User: Fold this.
Amino acid sequence: MKLLVLGANGQVGWELQRALAPLGEVHAWDRTAGDLGQPEALAAAVQALAPAAIVNAGAYTAVDKAESEAALAHTVNAEAPAYLAQVATRLGVPLVHYSTDYVFDGSGTHARTEDAPTGPLSVYGRSKLTGEDAIRASGCHHLILRTSWVYAARGGNFAKTMLRLGQERERLRVVNDQWGAPTGAELLADATAHALRAVLAQPQLGGTYHLCAAGETNWAAYARFVVDTARAMGRTLACQAVDGIPTSAYPTPAQRPLNSRLDCRRFEQAFGLRLPAWEQGVRRMLAEIT
Ligand SMILES: NC(=O)C1=CN([C@@H]2O[C@H](COP(=O)(O)OP(=O)(O)OC[C@H]3O[C@@H](n4cnc5c(N)ncnc54)[C@H](OP(=O)(O)O)[C@@H]3O)[C@@H](O)[C@H]2O)C=CC1
Ligand SMILES: Cc1cn([C@H]2C[C@H](O)[C@@H](COP(=O)(O)OP(=O)(O)O[C@H]3O[C@@H](C)C(=O)[C@@H](O)[C@H]3O)O2)c(=O)[nH]c1=O
Ligand SMILES: [Mg+2]
Assistant:
């Protein structure tokens, strides 16, 4: 059974190559093999490969840059998934796709379920929502997995930025009023493999799911956890304190939701899995890179 991974060099794509290997023959396409910026050519190549499942981990993920590159973000995050959904429909195979907490407006303090109203605040969030909607509208078998605050040992992410800044500066200023759950690419890939196996056997399990680590934190508390844990593991850091600041004191081109809490019970129940606390995966990642 051929399984296609797109965006194979990203945080999630890299881990998918490992996690999907026991399910079949993984074809891992990075941007040179499968350019999401050229959706028509990509669709033709996927059609020719005829995999038993398409797993799209590629995306335009530069949230601030997307504000000034809306057309490219739209092509990669919305148009390409629509083309992939067409191919999945023609081949009669499932399309697995990732989306984000940034499809929501972040009001309130509750954890959102899958059917909560969306309301993206940024170009990135809008482009991801348009991609989701196109997949749902296509009628293809699909698994749309909305996650949050992804990190991995390999690739760029907030935790690694904090380690770099923590080496250079005595104090870090980080927003403390945006809440969510850091989610490891390893966990995402492993949970995806379980869910994909289930969906291949029982297509009715397909749909849209929230999938992130358990618990919650804010970016400042997360940064503090990263700095403290890395130091306890022996890393030398200049950082003496992480100062929590309001979002208003950290202006960025893209607006981010204040409440990124996702209710993942639907995923846990459908696939019989238990999502571990976010700290567990962050600790493992830090141990791996320290
Ligand atoms: N990162 C996060 O915090 C979150 C991510 N998500 C979603 O999870 C999924 C995986 O994200 P993650 O692994 O973290 O993201 P990364 O940014 O680590 O990886 C994205 C990958 O997409 C590739 N890519 C970008 N543009 C193109 C293109 N035109 N053609 C082909 N490939 C392209 C990148 O290629 P290259 O390496 O060459 O640049 C990169 O390898 C995405 O759908 C993302 O929206 C959801 C919530 C949070
Ligand atoms: C570097 C830095 C960031 N921040 C803030 C900015 C922002 O509100 C928050 C996180 O910064 P980042 O730029 O890492 O966040 P961002 O790139 O917006 O992360 C998002 O990426 C996309 C792809 C997603 O889908 C989301 O789930 C989320 O993970 O921390 C500080 O307050 N101080 C700092 O020194
Ligand atoms: Mg970022």
